[in-house]
Design brief:
Structural class: alpha/beta
Distance between the termini: 17 Å
Shape: globular
Strand order of the largest sheet: 5-4-3-6-1-7-10-9
Order of helices and strands: EEHEHHEEHEHEEEE
Low-confidence stretches: none
Strand content: 25-35%
Helix content: 25-40%
């Protein structure tokens, strides 16, 4: 069975974006970008919320057409375009670039998706979508890329919840730019 892996960049104070959807504080250099390329390139698919999908679709489909685009970013553009994507949205009518629109998080449908052939797992992104997947106990791993910044406000990764989710540290890695990857397995007790 394929795993669902929540993968998000977050500030040290827990926000995925600052006020006005600001993500300019993300410290993505060549080393971190290559890590993303290697990681996402091994996945069987991506599960995006609509906001995350819109943000990605705004830039990545044509990023490699610009000769000024760094090689590592051009590589990611090709990876993102080609990988199967599922965007969860009640309003989006259609999506391009190998994307299927899904209306609701239905646990049985997600489990069926996990049961499909593949060994790379499914990358999950978007805080609202992550909250729904966590509520339904569908997340198997969490990989947080903690950026060394306090943004003071914005959209938190994890909304308030009365549910306790036990995690087991699977590993960590400090990148040269100060970003720290915290990799957790979710305990399904």
């Amino acid at each position: 069975m394929r795993k669902i892996v929540l993968m998000m960049s977050v500030s040290l104070d827990g926000f995925i974006e600052g006020p006005d959807r600001d993500i300019s504080w993300h410290r993505v250099d060549d080393e971190l970008h290559q890590h993303f390329n290697d990681t996402v390139g091994q996945l069987d698919g991506l599960l995006h919320g609509r906001v995350t999908y819109d943000l990605m679709a705004e830039y990545w489909p044509t990023a490699d057409a610009d000769p000024e685009t760094p090689a590592v970013a051009a590589e990611f553009a090709r990876i993102w375009r080609d990988i199967p994507k599922y965007v969860y949205s009640r309003t989006l009518q259609q999506a391009g670039w190998n994307t299927t629109v899904v209306r609701e998080v239905v646990p049985e449908e997600v489990r069926a998706l996990k049961d499909q052939p593949g060994s790379g797992g499914l990358g999950l992104s978007g805080s609202d979508l992550a909250a729904a997947f966590l509520r339904h106990h569908l997340v198997d791993e969490i990989r947080l890329y903690v950026h060394p910044v306090l943004v003071g406000g914005g959209k938190p990764l994890f909304p308030h919840s009365d549910t306790v989710t036990a995690l087991h540290l699977a590993g960590s890695h400090a990148f040269g730019n100060g970003v720290v990857l915290l990799h957790y397995d979710v305990a399904h007790d």
